[in-house]
Amino acid sequence: MFDHTQYRPTPAIKMVNRQWPNQVIQHAPIWCAVDLRDGNQALIEPMNVTQKQTMWQLLIDMGFKHIEVGFPSASQPDFDFVRWLIEEQQIPNDVTVQVLVQARDSLIERTFEALKGIKQAIVHVYNSTSPTQRDKVFNLDKQGIKNIAIAGAKKVQKESQKYPNTHWTFEYSPESFSNTEVDFAVEVCNAVIDVWQPNENQKAIINLPATVESSMPNIFADQVESFCQSIRNRKNIIISIHTHNDRGCAVAAAELAILAGADRIEGTLMGNGERTGNMDIVTMAMNLYSQGIDPELDISDARRITNTVQECTQIATHPRHPWVGELVYTAFSGSHQDAIKKCLAVQQPGESWDVAYLPINPQDVGRDYQSVIRINSQSGKGGVAYILENEFGVTLPRWGQIEMSQAVQAYSEKHEGEVSAQDIYAIFEEHFTQSSTPYSLGNYQITADTQSAASSRETLEASLNSADGALTIGAQGSGTITAFCNALTDHFAVDIDIIQYDQITQGRHTDAQARAFIQLTINNEKFIASAMQQDSLGASLSAILSGLNQHFKRLNRAA
After folding, report:
1. Of 174, 168, 160, 39, whose CA–CA distance to 108 is shortest?
2. pLDDT by residue (tens digit) across 327-342?
């Protein structure tokens, strides 16, 4: 039964003077990647040792300084992985690993055993605090829940004293914070803080999880701001956030939480996690990057990140995944393609990025411009022209762009799908390029009329090659092009009229530097052609001859 009345909205917090809407994020938070634990527990097939090592190396290379590596007291593979990191000296000096543990004595003891010999570590202890957990899971009142937190804090502190050579950081989470009364969450955390007594040299982390996202992100921001204003010893507390994505707002909630006073963000690469996932660190970091803020993480190799996450989690990356999906920098729309092409043409190195439909330079994350514009039946002339110019060195005149886009669109509609760059070039060759049968251009000679200085008439004599041998044609005209058309008209008894004519230098070619585009009618039928020669005049004459060849082929098919 689809009945909305069975649900209750998350109560809003009455705040007289909330500050977070007026704040601006100015620097990256402290990041903590939880892929190896929180993300791993959500997989159908948890990572094996090799996959964990691969993921670990990626996180290190990206620049994470806090990395949650497991729940060693609850899992032997997690215990063994922590020991491998320590015994094989895999942890850089500036990286602190984090381990998770419930507030239970035996589990805390086992956790510290796993961490024996480590230089520094974060021990993250938690217990649930929400009314639902209190009443229906633990059957405890508020004091009973608070007692669990206090006992866990004391046990963590006591066990740490057995390992004085390690620099310990303690972290506590009132699990289900987003569904807990803020004043009670503050009460429990204050009790934990009273045990740990954090100071400037030994700060504590208080992590506020949206264990299940159940409200709009602005309400979560109110909860975080209210908590930050009420917690004791705030200057020696690192406020951490751990949002989930049940409402699709995990990134937004984390960003607003930073505005509300939080210092640290826990999440996973690509948002993997239970149900709809954890907060997506790649997305949030790139959000900062796109606003000119250093994310303090290296996301320049998007392909490595996505490939590694796919390999380790066996979860495919959605092609529309923010910032790193295969299609996020791809334009199929004709108007979008045209705008991108024009903006890229004027974008100068060193100036602020300002390209329509591209919020960042795709090259920043290892993408090239070949994937920016892709062609289907919705595409227009700008995209087709961009592909031809950037991949094949063919610069189309504007009228040629229109003709070419119509041909590509017809192809796409016929084949009901995307048109590859190679397909586009094949269409170009079919519709535009020089047809050398039955006739191709041989030698030609031009003689100007020298009888009058004001005269612009020229005499042209040209040799045409064919399977039957060479033939010579000639005529006069008010210029070489006209003279050539007159010669063809006289010899073949056809009526030729030039409609559009463009010559374009193709600098990428060494043996044929000039390309001519011709749109002409022959006996009132339209033809388009392109040809390349070492000089522009030869290219123009060859293009006209190509149009005539198309005319003959059309006549043969009709016959």
Report:
1. 160
2. 888 877 767 877 888 8
User: 285: buried, middle or exposed (CB in 10 Å: 19+, 13-18, 0-12)?
Assistant: buried
The answer to whether residues 459 and 476 touch, using CB atoms and an 8 Å cutoff, is yes
Give 174's strand partners. 127
d(CA 417, CA 328) in angstroms, rounded, equals 18
Q: With 80 as the cut, is the pLDDT of residue 390 above it?
A: no
- Tell me the pLDDT band of 531, cut-offs 50, 70 and 90: confident
Tell which wins on pLDDT, 186 or 415: 186
Question: Which of 381 and 210 is assigned the larger pLDDT?
Answer: 210
Structure tokens at 68: 């949650």
Residue corresponding to tokens 């303690």? 170
The three-state DSSP-derived secondary structure of 352-364 is CCCECCECCCHHH
| Cα–Cα distance, 279 to 243 (Å, whole number) | 6
Is residue 253 within 8 Å of residue 280, measured between CB atoms?
no
Give 237's Cβ-side CA count (13 Å radius): 26
Q: Is the pLDDT of residue 145 over 50?
A: yes
Residue-wise pLDDT tens digits, 247-275 = 999 999 999 999 999 999 999 999 999 99
Count of beta carbons in the 10 Å neighbourhood of residue 185? 24
Q: What is the rounded CA–CA span in Å between residue 423 and residue 393?
A: 15
Q: What residue type is assigned to position 280 of the chain? A: D
Q: For residue 515, report the phi and psi dihedrals to the nearest 5 degrees.
A: -125, 135
Tokens of 11: 């109560």
List, in order of start, the domains of the chain with CATH numbers: 29-313 (3.20.20.70), 334-431 (no CATH), 440-558 (3.30.160.270)
pTM: 0.75
Q: For 445, which DSSP code?
A: E
Sign of CA dihedral 484, 487, 488, 494: positive
Q: Which residues pair with 355 in a beta bridge?
A: 358
| Residue 115 in this model has a pLDDT that exceeds 90 | yes
